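Moderator note: this is an archived Q&A kept for reference. The question asked for a predicted structure of one protein chain; the sequence and the answer are reproduced below.
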Amino acid sequence: MSEHDPAERAHGAQVITCPPRRQAKPADPCAMVIFGASGDLTRRLVVPALYNLARTKILPENFALIGVARAESTTESWRQGLYDGLKSFVGNAATEFDVDSIDEAAWNQLAAGMSYVQGDVTTPEVYETLRDALAEAEKAHGTRGNVIFYLALADRFFGPVVDELGKARITAEPEDQKGQRHFWRRVVIEKPFGHDLPSARALDVRILHRLREDQIFRIDHFLGKDPVQSIMAFRFANGLFEPVWNRDRIDHVQITVAETVGVEQRGKFYEATGALRDMVPNHVFTLLSMVAMEPPVGFDAASIRSKKAELFAAMPAVVPKYAVRGQYGGGTVLGKPANAYRHEPDVAADSDVETFVAMRLEIDNWRWAGVPFFVRTGKHMSARKTEIAICFKHAPYAAFQATPVDSLQPNWLVLNISPDEGISLQCEVKRPGPQVDLATVRMDFRYDDWFPKEPNVGYETLLHDVMTGDATLFMRADMVEQAWRIVQPVLDDWAAGQSEMQVYASGSDGPQAADNLIARDGARAWRPVDGPTGPKR
């Protein structure tokens, strides 16, 4: 049974008809220039995503891919390296690239437009060579002058590369006498977008000196996940949930982004970044904005991003006492011994960099005032899980005075982002028998049960959106700055050494201080990270 055709799925006595999936909007002919073409991000994510777009007939037929990197290489060897990297993903369920073999026709379509430019991206000379390569691509592949510049680089190069592109006028979109632009130029910037509020503001000023805001696409691969994108549809397309999506019915919200991996070979990066900068102003706030934003007037980029910006503006800065930082010690993760963070490669023996952070956040508006949002993210935890858990207020006890008080549990609505993508609702029912005894049950929806699973690395939707100019899933400058504003007091407090580092065992759910944080004003508790996410058996 395929999602592409009308399908009937029987659930008990009810038959649900699934309408056919609409075709994606065709993308304009274009060229993509990848700065950092020899890097891991290009090999593991960007090029496999482009291949998937070709495989599903969404990549423009008139497409060219130009790699720019310092490494000495040729077009042929660069192309072969990408092909070899793609083969390593095929059949690897861990990357959701679960197909038997490479679609050679799709690969050949992508490979036919490839070329490589070797050079230092901080020097003007490479941009003169790039200009010639773009002209050749337009002539050979009919890209019509449309270009995406993808900055798959360390963040210290974002400003310099945008400056050089601007100086060379490669990102210019000249208008004719009627004020019309006949081609577009767009720049994709990976995170981290700044390291704190001052640096984010400085970067915004620098790139906005060379580009218009509508040319900038600040990418966060979290938003490429279908379950994340589906949160708004779940909220606003169902009359059942939105009426109770407020402070009158919701007690609190928990957002968890837990990883079982440690820093692995990223010690140098992590020593300069830490869990808060790496995860909270981007990934975690992305999830928070989807679940807490007000309904937009339309599902266009301007409407949705404005509502997200309003949400961030309504959030007070975090009080440092409502933040916990932790660092993993030794322990056991998934049955295997795990090193302490300070024993990892390229990590200082006395490092005070956090690998775990928990926070209490507030939203000071009419919908959410008084509802705490608790967020946590960490490495070397007991399980890999990303979820948004919404806890509803207790029902009145009066009707159940004859039952044990602790048997009446609150309702939970859990949006499972990964690895078990789906939605579950926990509610109370009466046990069979003469006594009025309550039991907690869970109703589950799983994407894999309803829709065919397709190979996906998380970048396909985002890259297609850049090609079509749809900025819905990308951060705007004011949103980035507001996110940093919210966490800046915590960064300042930690930099001044005002809060104690909490060590937690690898393979645990984090430090005890995080449990104390959530229990401080309401006897609340975190949901177990390694708890079940699928249907109860």
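Archived answer notes: The domain at 30-220 is CATH 3.40.50.720 (Rossmann fold).
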